[in-house]
Amino acid sequence: MLTVQGINVYYGAIHALKDLSIQVNQGEIVTLIGANGAGKSTLLKTLSGLLKPKTGSIEFLGKSITNQSVQAIVKQGLIHCPEGRRVFANMSVEENLELGAYLQDGKSLAADFERVYSMFPRLLERKKQQAGTLSGGEQQMLAMGRAIMGHPKLLLLDEPSMGLAPLLVQDIFKIIQEVNAAGTTVLLVEQNAHQALKIAHRAYVLETGRVVLEGDASELADSEEIKMAYLGH
Amino acid sequence: MEYFIQQLINGISVGSIYALIALGYTMVYGIIKLINFAHGDVFMVGSFIGLYSAKFLANAGLPPVLVLLLSLIIAMTMSSLLGITIERLAYKPLRKSTRIAALITAIGVSFLLEYVAVLILGPQAKGFPDIMEKKQYQLFGTSIQVDSNQVMILITTIVLMIILQYIVRYTKTGKAMRAVSFDMEAARLMGINVDRTISATFAIGSALAAAAGVIFGMTYNSVDPLMGVMPGLKAFVAAVLGGIGSIPGALVGGLLLGTVETEISSLGYSSWRDGVAFAVLILILIFKPSGLFGKNVREKV
């Protein structure tokens, strides 16, 4: 579904991604784990078109999206739910969701609202409320709901569990599995490697802009190396 | 007391003009953090377009209300195109540069518009045609007078405010504008076309300035290529007073500034009028830089 081949991405003078290649297959949950500054968020930003690789290629659904605009990429169903939620705090929950469906023709809008509200009943309760007044967990649900409104074929999730209480983290991971079961492929960036490896099919480990390890999530979860470095035991 | 209310009514007319111009400042600032100093000159261009359309349409024998309405529409449409063009040619290439570069460019665009207008139209003031006959009305048996022009200003301003409010709150473009002004990158991730949204903002701001230009022409009967300088600066003060970036702020700031100015003049200090306006700017910047309706925003690092 997504094939990234040998991309090099620079942040000014910093060489953030070095000759990086990954692949995501239809129907998978793939997780990227790695320390802060390993380049996980940079990779997602490059996939959604916010950053452009200097060299290398990105192919999505058989077509090159390497130099396409963010808008064109979103239109093809690659949707990026950014780190830190980034909800439009000055707008209502409903308006936020509506913006998620910005490129949809509006025919499925009612059904999409219903789907997101059934997934996140809390959002329905608060649909007229300003997004800025929501709790952290609710904002994360809103950010994910907003991304789902755009009919993602591939959903990029950047740190969805960041800063949330443990119980909420469980909820969020459960929802990711549900979204995946409903047919959306997921590329998940997580600090919480333990949880991420539990729900993912495959994983890539990033270190200073390179893929240093890849494999089945369950295998990686058992590997001594990963346990030492990322799972804290 | 009646005298005070009379001046208040006069102040609301002047204030409406400031408010209409201030909206363009505040909306553009809200979306790209640029003080568009060429905005006062868009007001001037709008006024001239209104003048020539009104002359043409009146000669064609149209009834006054239609002349007014069509002149407004023509001036607003053409000025929005001017606004879009200015943004595309002058500001868009600088979107990734420092803010000061764009600000200096805005001042350059301002001079360009002013002196191209002098070149084409000549430096002399031109008389604005009397589109409608001015009538005076007595208010509720008091000595307070309202003229038909003031009524027209009020109606035009209210109608434009309702349209603006509708666009910003309920249309797709308006929602995109609010999203882009809140978080441009997140808006892009929704698939919002940021360039087009910025163009729309310039178009709406310029159209409002043009409407102010036509109203100004009808009120003061004289327009010239440098007429945009003072109202432009005053509207900037109004926008800062209300809280730059805030739409209701621009409206309240404009009305407040117009009223204060008029009251000052009516007390016999008319030569102090402009000074007071800028003193207001200084005071606001010292004591409440975020303005009446502005929020304190922390700079993102």
UniProtKB/TrEMBL annotation, chain A:
Biological process annotations from GO: L-amino acid transport
Full protein name: Amino acid/amide ABC transporter ATP-binding protein 2, HAAT family
SMART domains (UniProt xref): AAA
Domain ABC transporter: 2-233
GO molecular function: ATP binding; ATP hydrolysis activity; branched-chain amino acid transmembrane transporter activity
Family matches, as CDD domains: ABC_TM1139_LivF_branched
Family: Belongs to the ABC transporter superfamily.
Transcription regulation among keywords: no
Entry annotated with the keyword Lipid biosynthesis: no
Keywords: Amino-acid transport, ATP-binding, Nucleotide-binding, Transport
UniProtKB/TrEMBL annotation, chain B:
Cellular component, GO annotation: plasma membrane
Pfam families assigned to the protein according to its UniProt record, in alphabetical order: BPD_transp_2
Record-stated family: Belongs to the binding-protein-dependent transport system permease family. LivHM subfamily.
CDD domains in alphabetical order: TM_PBP1_LivH_like
Superkingdom in the source lineage: Bacteria
Keyword annotations from UniProtKB, A to Z: Amino-acid transport, Cell inner membrane, Cell membrane, Membrane, Transmembrane, Transmembrane helix, Transport
GO molecular function terms listed in the Swiss-Prot or TrEMBL record: L-isoleucine transmembrane transporter activity; L-leucine transmembrane transporter activity; L-phenylalanine transmembrane transporter activity; L-valine transmembrane transporter activity
Protein name (record): Amino acid/amide ABC transporter membrane protein 1, HAAT family
